[in-house]
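LOG
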Amino acid sequence: MIIIYLTSRFPYPINKGDKLRSYYQIKELSKSHEIHLISLSENSIYKEDISELNKYCESISIYKMNFYKRVFNLFKTFFNNKPFQVNYFHHYSIQKKINLNIAEINPDYIFCQLIRTAIYVKNNHTVPKIIDYMDSLSKGMERRIKISNIFIKPFVIMEFQRLKRFENLAFEFFNKHIIISQNDRKEIAHHKKNEIEIIGNGIDTEYFKRINTDIKYELVFIGNLSYLPNIEAANYIAKKIVPRLKETYPNIKILIAGSSPSTRVLRLANKNIEVQGWVKDIRKTYSSGKIFFAPMSIGSGLQNKLLEAMSIGIPCITSELSNLSLKATDKENILIGNSVNEYVNQINSLLKNENKRKEIGDKGRKYVIENYNWQTANFKLLELLKSKQNI
């Protein structure tokens, strides 16, 4: 089968959740199908990154989005009914090129990742299409409303409402639909949302193993540090959790690490908190901590950072929100909290008990091995693609 795989970001290097999912889907699909990758990009892509995807793709087309057109597209949002992020990624000059790609490649299927790319294939009625919602973007936006200031809140509300409508509308553009978790599927407004297939993420547990390195930190938090839910989590750690922990551990060391740290995150650095940017081998970063702590209060979908940390074998503490999709078992293979007091008590219980840390860490790794692997997830995707529908 010939498949066009359309993404809003180039899938490599793997420093964001959408990139991780697309990379492993492409890698698995390429074993039995011919993949033609089309990616939008804000920046130029390095040759070595393209080479990594060349291993799995018959062709790669990268369309760089002009900065001024991106700004103009955001401005257009005030005069049409589309979400900001749909307008941001849709460029008519790129639309023409993608139309030519589709005509030349003549695919058996078009795979679109995220509703950001859906509009590019809206008017194609000749090729079967599949949309990967990944998460409910509208639900993630709705959770941002409560933390937005008085100036930003009207735009966040508008984006939430438009995303909700567009998730519903985009359903009609496609023959098949997938999403990461049942919890996110519930948030899609379409009356046929139960037809959306749940295909989760996986984790390469052979790669994500604990490696020998010095344990320098009591707590580690890792994520894309330009992404608002991660920025909020980092601030929560620094301003709510660390002051309480310093009462017992005045010299406690915390690592906040990940790609593209925002100014808000960089300002958190002090004698107790180290902020670190993107590193090539993230396993060393995970392995340098006693506990992985991810107190997520906004966002949606499955947190890949938790899968990676659990696979490494480091005990994890997270929020009830983050565990909705993960579905781990509190006090068995993970610890769940919802308040400063709960988090501090859980951190204390692990810091004071090395055996408990090892037990939670070992059971966490066992859980992801049994429940989250790319082979199982992508087998479901392959089966779904086999049953091609006519439009």
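LOG (cont.) second protein
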Amino acid sequence: MTVVFYDGECRFCSAVVRFVLRRDRDALFQFASIQSEAGCELLAEYGVPSPGLDTMYLLEAGQVYERSTAALRIARRLRGYGVAASICLWIPRFLRDFCYRVIARNRHRILQANHCFLPTEDQKKRFLGL
């Protein structure tokens, strides 16, 4: 099981989920809001009892990745982004996570859309706890 955990109340995070859904043609990823019961329980089961809402998590092959590592591991599995994401993973984590934290701190200002993301019926099957 490969699960992307995201802040379900953040428009920027929802835009990232939509981005992944559009490019994940092989349906590799499932999704869970960090605020959902399913998301909280699964993260706690894998050693993240108090997840931060400003952090994206990825559960992949029984291991939880966070922040830039999670984002790049997701991108690496999307068509057209694999090579660039793999190269970026060579950048030291403290530098990648610094950039990640700047974006995370400002994510509510970066995208101020006036609508919520509503998954289609097919997409709903990929969301845990819906």
